[in-house]
Protein backbone atom coordinates (compact mmCIF):
# COMPACT_ATOMS: atom_id res chain seq x y z
CA UNK A 1 0.00 0.00 0.00
CA UNK A 2 1.38 3.44 -0.97
CA UNK A 3 1.76 6.21 1.61
CA UNK A 4 -1.27 8.49 2.02
CA UNK A 5 -0.66 11.81 0.26
CA UNK A 6 -0.91 14.69 2.70
CA UNK A 7 -1.35 17.49 0.14
CA UNK A 8 -4.07 20.08 0.90
CA UNK A 9 -6.44 19.12 -1.90
CA UNK A 10 -6.71 15.52 -0.74
CA UNK A 11 -6.89 16.12 2.99
CA UNK A 12 -10.64 16.71 2.80
CA UNK A 13 -11.05 13.71 0.51
CA UNK A 14 -12.93 12.92 -2.66
CA UNK A 15 -16.62 12.74 -3.60
CA UNK A 16 -17.55 10.47 -6.48
CA UNK A 17 -20.76 11.54 -8.18
CA UNK A 18 -22.48 8.98 -10.41
CA UNK A 19 -20.95 5.66 -9.30
CA UNK A 20 -21.43 3.51 -12.39
CA UNK A 21 -18.76 1.21 -13.78
CA UNK A 22 -16.00 3.80 -14.03
CA UNK A 23 -16.93 5.66 -10.84
CA UNK A 24 -16.79 2.53 -8.71
CA UNK A 25 -13.64 1.23 -10.35
CA UNK A 26 -11.86 4.56 -10.00
CA UNK A 27 -13.05 4.95 -6.42
CA UNK A 28 -11.77 1.55 -5.36
CA UNK A 29 -8.49 1.84 -7.28
CA UNK A 30 -7.79 5.28 -5.77
CA UNK A 31 -8.82 4.17 -2.31
CA UNK A 32 -6.42 1.21 -2.52
CA UNK A 33 -3.65 3.59 -3.56
CA UNK A 34 -4.22 5.70 -0.43
CA UNK A 35 -6.55 8.45 -1.68
CA UNK A 36 -9.39 9.07 0.78
CA UNK A 37 -12.80 8.61 -0.85
CA UNK A 38 -15.34 10.22 1.49
CA UNK A 39 -18.62 10.28 -0.41
CA UNK A 40 -20.36 8.40 -3.15
CA UNK A 41 -23.33 10.33 -4.49
CA UNK A 42 -26.07 8.94 -6.72
CA UNK A 43 -29.65 9.81 -7.63
CA UNK A 44 -30.64 6.40 -6.29
CA UNK A 45 -29.51 5.98 -2.67
CA UNK A 46 -29.61 2.17 -2.77
CA UNK A 47 -27.14 2.26 -5.70
CA UNK A 48 -24.96 4.74 -3.86
CA UNK A 49 -24.88 2.35 -0.90
CA UNK A 50 -23.92 -0.59 -3.08
CA UNK A 51 -21.15 1.47 -4.66
CA UNK A 52 -19.94 2.66 -1.25
CA UNK A 53 -19.63 -0.97 -0.12
CA UNK A 54 -17.66 -1.79 -3.28
CA UNK A 55 -15.29 1.17 -2.85
CA UNK A 56 -15.00 0.85 0.95
CA UNK A 57 -14.52 3.46 3.67
CA UNK A 58 -16.93 6.07 2.24
CA UNK A 59 -20.47 7.30 2.85
CA UNK A 60 -23.39 7.01 0.44
CA UNK A 61 -25.35 10.22 -0.10
CA UNK A 62 -28.00 11.62 -2.45
CA UNK A 63 -27.19 14.12 -5.19
CA UNK A 64 -28.52 17.08 -3.24
CA UNK A 65 -26.65 16.28 -0.03
CA UNK A 66 -24.61 19.35 0.88
CA UNK A 67 -21.84 17.26 2.47
CA UNK A 68 -20.60 16.54 -1.08
CA UNK A 69 -19.33 20.11 -1.12
CA UNK A 70 -17.09 19.44 1.88
CA UNK A 71 -14.87 17.19 -0.22
CA UNK A 72 -11.77 18.81 -1.67
CA UNK A 73 -12.16 16.98 -4.98
CA UNK A 74 -15.43 16.16 -6.68
CA UNK A 75 -15.37 13.73 -9.62
CA UNK A 76 -18.36 13.49 -11.92
CA UNK A 77 -18.44 9.99 -13.35
CA UNK A 78 -22.02 10.18 -14.66
CA UNK A 79 -22.85 9.26 -18.27
CA UNK A 80 -21.68 11.79 -20.87
CA UNK A 81 -25.10 13.30 -21.49
CA UNK A 82 -25.68 13.84 -17.76
CA UNK A 83 -22.45 15.76 -17.08
CA UNK A 84 -23.80 19.27 -17.94
CA UNK A 85 -27.08 18.69 -16.05
CA UNK A 86 -25.46 17.26 -12.94
CA UNK A 87 -22.74 19.94 -12.97
CA UNK A 88 -25.37 22.67 -13.16
CA UNK A 89 -27.49 21.35 -10.28
CA UNK A 90 -24.58 20.28 -8.05
CA UNK A 91 -22.82 23.64 -8.41
CA UNK A 92 -25.93 25.31 -6.99
CA UNK A 93 -25.45 23.44 -3.70
CA UNK A 94 -23.35 26.33 -2.45
CA UNK A 95 -22.36 29.85 -3.42
CA UNK A 96 -18.59 29.45 -3.42
CA UNK A 97 -16.48 26.52 -4.55
CA UNK A 98 -13.09 28.16 -4.03
CA UNK A 99 -10.36 25.75 -2.99
CA UNK A 100 -12.19 22.82 -4.59
CA UNK A 101 -11.23 20.79 -7.62
CA UNK A 102 -13.99 19.41 -9.84
CA UNK A 103 -13.18 16.81 -12.49
CA UNK A 104 -15.19 14.82 -15.01
CA UNK A 105 -14.22 11.58 -16.73
CA UNK A 106 -15.84 11.99 -20.14
CA UNK A 107 -13.35 11.66 -22.99
CA UNK A 108 -15.26 13.70 -25.56
CA UNK A 109 -16.24 16.75 -23.46
CA UNK A 110 -14.02 19.70 -22.62
CA UNK A 111 -13.93 21.40 -19.24
CA UNK A 112 -16.40 24.09 -20.36
CA UNK A 113 -19.20 21.82 -19.07
CA UNK A 114 -17.84 22.44 -15.58
CA UNK A 115 -18.22 26.22 -15.95
CA UNK A 116 -20.97 26.34 -13.25
CA UNK A 117 -18.27 25.31 -10.72
CA UNK A 118 -15.54 27.42 -12.22
CA UNK A 119 -17.51 30.62 -12.06
CA UNK A 120 -18.05 29.88 -8.37
CA UNK A 121 -14.31 29.62 -7.78
CA UNK A 122 -13.44 25.92 -8.30
CA UNK A 123 -10.51 24.69 -10.38
CA UNK A 124 -11.93 22.35 -13.04
CA UNK A 125 -10.60 19.71 -15.37
CA UNK A 126 -11.05 16.25 -16.78
CA UNK A 127 -9.30 12.91 -16.62
CA UNK A 128 -10.17 10.12 -18.99
CA UNK A 129 -8.68 6.63 -19.04
CA UNK A 130 -8.00 5.28 -22.53
CA UNK A 131 -9.39 2.03 -21.25
CA UNK A 132 -12.50 -0.14 -21.38
CA UNK A 133 -14.41 -0.84 -18.17
CA UNK A 134 -17.26 -3.31 -18.64
CA UNK A 135 -17.67 -3.81 -14.86
CA UNK A 136 -16.38 -2.14 -11.68
CA UNK A 137 -14.22 -5.17 -10.80
CA UNK A 138 -12.67 -5.32 -14.28
CA UNK A 139 -11.97 -1.59 -14.03
CA UNK A 140 -10.08 -1.88 -10.73
CA UNK A 141 -7.63 -4.14 -12.58
CA UNK A 142 -7.53 -2.31 -15.92
CA UNK A 143 -7.13 1.20 -14.47
CA UNK A 144 -3.70 0.17 -13.20
CA UNK A 145 -0.85 1.24 -15.50
CA UNK A 146 -3.13 2.66 -18.19
CA UNK A 147 -3.02 5.84 -20.28
CA UNK A 148 -5.04 8.93 -19.32
CA UNK A 149 -5.87 12.19 -21.02
CA UNK A 150 -5.77 14.99 -18.49
CA UNK A 151 -6.82 18.58 -19.04
CA UNK A 152 -7.89 21.62 -17.08
CA UNK A 153 -6.89 24.36 -14.66
CA UNK A 154 -3.46 24.04 -13.05
CA UNK A 155 -4.70 22.77 -9.69
CA UNK A 156 -7.12 20.31 -11.30
CA UNK A 157 -4.39 18.94 -13.57
CA UNK A 158 -2.07 18.55 -10.56
CA UNK A 159 -4.67 16.43 -8.73
CA UNK A 160 -5.46 14.33 -11.82
CA UNK A 161 -1.79 13.73 -12.56
CA UNK A 162 -1.09 12.74 -8.97
CA UNK A 163 -3.85 10.10 -9.24
CA UNK A 164 -2.49 8.80 -12.53
CA UNK A 165 0.92 8.50 -10.90
CA UNK A 166 -0.51 6.58 -7.96
CA UNK A 167 -2.11 4.15 -10.41
CA UNK A 168 1.23 3.77 -12.24
CA UNK A 169 -0.28 5.26 -15.39
CA UNK A 170 0.86 7.74 -18.02
CA UNK A 171 -0.92 11.00 -18.77
CA UNK A 172 -1.05 13.30 -21.80
CA UNK A 173 -3.03 16.35 -22.82
CA UNK A 174 -5.60 16.64 -25.61
CA UNK A 175 -6.74 20.19 -26.52
CA UNK A 176 -10.44 20.79 -25.82
CA UNK A 177 -11.35 21.24 -29.50
CA UNK A 178 -9.90 17.77 -30.31
CA UNK A 179 -11.55 15.83 -27.49
CA UNK A 180 -14.26 14.36 -29.74
CA UNK A 181 -11.59 13.28 -32.23
CA UNK A 182 -9.57 11.66 -29.46
CA UNK A 183 -12.62 9.85 -28.13
CA UNK A 184 -13.59 8.69 -31.62
CA UNK A 185 -10.20 6.98 -31.89
CA UNK A 186 -11.04 4.93 -28.79
CA UNK A 187 -14.51 4.12 -30.09
CA UNK A 188 -13.07 2.96 -33.41
CA UNK A 189 -11.03 0.15 -31.85
CA UNK A 190 -12.90 -1.01 -28.76
CA UNK A 191 -16.69 -1.45 -29.01
CA UNK A 192 -16.23 -2.07 -32.74
CA UNK A 193 -13.75 -4.89 -32.05
CA UNK A 194 -16.18 -6.48 -29.58
CA UNK A 195 -18.99 -6.17 -32.14
CA UNK A 196 -16.87 -7.81 -34.85
CA UNK A 197 -15.72 -10.56 -32.45
CA UNK A 198 -19.33 -11.28 -31.57
CA UNK A 199 -20.17 -11.61 -35.28
CA UNK A 200 -17.15 -13.84 -35.75
CA UNK A 201 -18.30 -16.00 -32.82
CA UNK A 202 -21.69 -16.49 -34.51
CA UNK A 203 -20.03 -17.52 -37.80
CA UNK A 204 -17.72 -19.96 -36.00
CA UNK A 205 -20.75 -21.59 -34.37
CA UNK A 206 -22.35 -21.97 -37.79
CA UNK A 207 -19.10 -23.43 -39.10
CA UNK A 208 -19.37 -26.15 -36.43
CA UNK A 209 -16.47 -25.16 -34.16
CA UNK A 210 -17.16 -26.49 -30.62
CA UNK A 211 -18.72 -23.69 -28.54
CA UNK A 212 -16.27 -24.16 -25.64
CA UNK A 213 -13.31 -23.42 -27.95
CA UNK A 214 -14.66 -20.32 -29.65
CA UNK A 215 -13.96 -17.58 -27.10
CA UNK A 216 -10.47 -18.74 -26.09
CA UNK A 217 -9.64 -19.27 -29.76
CA UNK A 218 -10.84 -15.79 -30.74
CA UNK A 219 -9.13 -14.26 -27.71
CA UNK A 220 -5.78 -15.81 -28.65
CA UNK A 221 -6.16 -14.79 -32.30
CA UNK A 222 -7.06 -11.18 -31.55
CA UNK A 223 -4.39 -10.88 -28.83
CA UNK A 224 -1.75 -12.00 -31.35
CA UNK A 225 -3.12 -9.49 -33.90
CA UNK A 226 -2.84 -6.73 -31.30
CA UNK A 227 0.72 -7.79 -30.41
CA UNK A 228 1.68 -7.66 -34.10
CA UNK A 229 0.17 -4.20 -34.50
CA UNK A 230 2.14 -2.97 -31.46
CA UNK A 231 5.37 -4.55 -32.75
CA UNK A 232 5.21 -3.87 -36.52
CA UNK A 233 2.61 -1.07 -37.01
CA UNK A 234 -0.46 -1.25 -39.28
CA UNK A 235 0.87 -1.93 -42.81
CA UNK A 236 3.37 -4.66 -41.78
CA UNK A 237 1.00 -6.42 -39.38
CA UNK A 238 -1.66 -6.91 -42.08
CA UNK A 239 -2.26 -10.47 -43.31
CA UNK A 240 -5.16 -12.19 -45.09
CA UNK A 241 -6.57 -12.68 -48.58
CA UNK A 242 -7.07 -8.99 -49.43
CA UNK A 243 -3.40 -8.22 -48.82
CA UNK A 244 -2.27 -11.37 -50.67
CA UNK A 245 -4.55 -10.62 -53.63
CA UNK A 246 -6.53 -13.87 -53.23
CA UNK A 247 -9.72 -12.49 -54.78
CA UNK A 248 -11.41 -15.90 -55.22
CA UNK A 249 -11.17 -16.45 -51.46
CA UNK A 250 -12.74 -13.04 -50.86
CA UNK A 251 -15.57 -13.89 -53.26
CA UNK A 252 -16.24 -17.10 -51.32
CA UNK A 253 -16.38 -15.00 -48.12
CA UNK A 254 -18.89 -12.60 -49.66
CA UNK A 255 -21.08 -15.51 -50.80
CA UNK A 256 -21.10 -16.89 -47.22
CA UNK A 257 -21.84 -13.43 -45.77
CA UNK A 258 -24.80 -12.98 -48.15
CA UNK A 259 -26.16 -16.29 -46.92
CA UNK A 260 -25.49 -16.11 -43.17
CA UNK A 261 -24.94 -12.42 -42.27
CA UNK A 262 -26.14 -10.23 -45.15
CA UNK A 263 -26.09 -7.14 -42.91
CA UNK A 264 -22.30 -7.44 -42.84
CA UNK A 265 -21.79 -7.27 -46.62
CA UNK A 266 -21.42 -3.43 -46.79
CA UNK A 267 -19.16 -3.44 -43.70
CA UNK A 268 -16.98 -6.14 -45.29
CA UNK A 269 -16.78 -4.21 -48.60
CA UNK A 270 -15.62 -1.00 -46.88
CA UNK A 271 -13.17 -2.84 -44.64
CA UNK A 272 -11.54 -4.55 -47.64
CA UNK A 273 -11.26 -1.15 -49.33
CA UNK A 274 -9.54 0.36 -46.28
CA UNK A 275 -7.28 -2.69 -45.94
CA UNK A 276 -6.10 -2.43 -49.54
CA UNK A 277 -5.38 1.26 -49.11
CA UNK A 278 -3.38 0.48 -45.95
CA UNK A 279 -1.45 -2.25 -47.80
CA UNK A 280 -0.85 0.09 -50.80
CA UNK A 281 -2.59 -2.35 -53.19
CA UNK A 282 -5.06 -1.49 -55.96
CA UNK A 283 -8.65 -2.71 -55.58
CA UNK A 284 -9.65 -5.53 -57.96
CA UNK A 285 -11.86 -4.65 -60.94
CA UNK A 286 -15.55 -5.53 -60.63
N1 LIG B 1 -16.97 2.35 -18.94
C1 LIG B 1 -15.95 2.71 -19.68
O1 LIG B 1 -15.35 1.87 -20.39
C2 LIG B 1 -15.44 4.13 -19.66
C3 LIG B 1 -14.10 4.35 -20.06
C4 LIG B 1 -13.63 5.64 -20.07
C5 LIG B 1 -14.44 6.70 -19.68
N2 LIG B 1 -15.73 6.46 -19.32
C6 LIG B 1 -16.57 7.64 -18.97
O2 LIG B 1 -17.00 7.52 -17.61
C7 LIG B 1 -18.30 8.07 -17.47
C8 LIG B 1 -19.23 6.99 -16.89
O3 LIG B 1 -19.26 5.89 -17.75
P1 LIG B 1 -19.71 4.44 -17.22
O4 LIG B 1 -19.39 3.49 -18.30
O5 LIG B 1 -19.19 4.22 -15.85
O6 LIG B 1 -21.29 4.63 -17.17
P2 LIG B 1 -22.37 3.79 -16.35
O7 LIG B 1 -21.83 2.52 -15.83
O8 LIG B 1 -23.58 3.77 -17.23
O9 LIG B 1 -22.67 4.75 -15.11
C9 LIG B 1 -23.22 6.02 -15.28
C10 LIG B 1 -23.58 6.60 -13.94
O10 LIG B 1 -24.17 7.88 -14.19
C11 LIG B 1 -25.38 7.97 -13.47
N3 LIG B 1 -26.29 8.88 -14.17
C12 LIG B 1 -26.71 8.81 -15.45
N4 LIG B 1 -27.55 9.83 -15.73
C13 LIG B 1 -27.66 10.55 -14.58
C14 LIG B 1 -28.38 11.73 -14.23
N5 LIG B 1 -29.16 12.38 -15.12
N6 LIG B 1 -28.27 12.19 -12.97
C15 LIG B 1 -27.48 11.54 -12.07
N7 LIG B 1 -26.76 10.43 -12.34
C16 LIG B 1 -26.86 9.95 -13.59
C17 LIG B 1 -25.92 6.57 -13.41
O11 LIG B 1 -26.85 6.50 -12.37
P3 LIG B 1 -28.05 5.42 -12.38
O12 LIG B 1 -27.41 4.15 -11.92
O13 LIG B 1 -29.03 6.01 -11.42
O14 LIG B 1 -28.57 5.36 -13.79
C18 LIG B 1 -24.63 5.78 -13.15
O15 LIG B 1 -24.27 5.82 -11.80
C19 LIG B 1 -18.74 8.54 -18.87
O16 LIG B 1 -18.45 9.91 -18.99
C20 LIG B 1 -17.85 7.72 -19.81
O17 LIG B 1 -17.61 8.39 -21.01
C21 LIG B 1 -16.25 5.21 -19.29
Q: Strand-residue fraction?
A: 5-15%
Helix content: 40-55%
Annotated CATH topology of the largest domain: Rossmann fold
Largest sheet: 8 strands, mixed
Low-confidence stretches: 1-10
Number of helices: 14
Count of DSSP strands: 8
Query: Structural class, from secondary structure content?
Result: alpha/beta
Mean pLDDT: 94
Structural domain count: 2
The string of secondary-structure elements, in order, is: HEHEHEEHEHEHEHEHHHHHHH
Distinct small-molecule ligands in the complex: NADP nicotinamide-adenine-dinucleotide phosphate
Enumerate the strands of the largest sheet in spatial order, edge to edge or round the barrel: 3-2-1-4-5-6-7-8
Q: How many angstroms separate the termini?
A: 63 Å
- CATH superfamily of the largest domain, by name, is NAD(P)-binding Rossmann-like Domain
Query: Can you name the CATH architecture of the largest domain?
Result: 3-Layer(aba) Sandwich
Radius of gyration: 23 Å
CATH C-level of the largest domain: Alpha Beta
Please tell me what the overall shape is: elongated
Amino acid sequence: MKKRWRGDSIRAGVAIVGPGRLGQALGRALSRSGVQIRFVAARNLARARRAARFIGGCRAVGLSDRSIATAAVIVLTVSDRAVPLVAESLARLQEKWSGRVVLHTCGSLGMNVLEPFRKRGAAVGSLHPFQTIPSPAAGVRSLQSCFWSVDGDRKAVAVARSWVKRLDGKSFRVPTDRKALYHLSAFLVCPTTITLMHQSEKLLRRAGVPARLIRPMLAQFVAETVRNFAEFGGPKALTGPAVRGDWETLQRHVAMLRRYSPELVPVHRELVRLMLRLAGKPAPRG
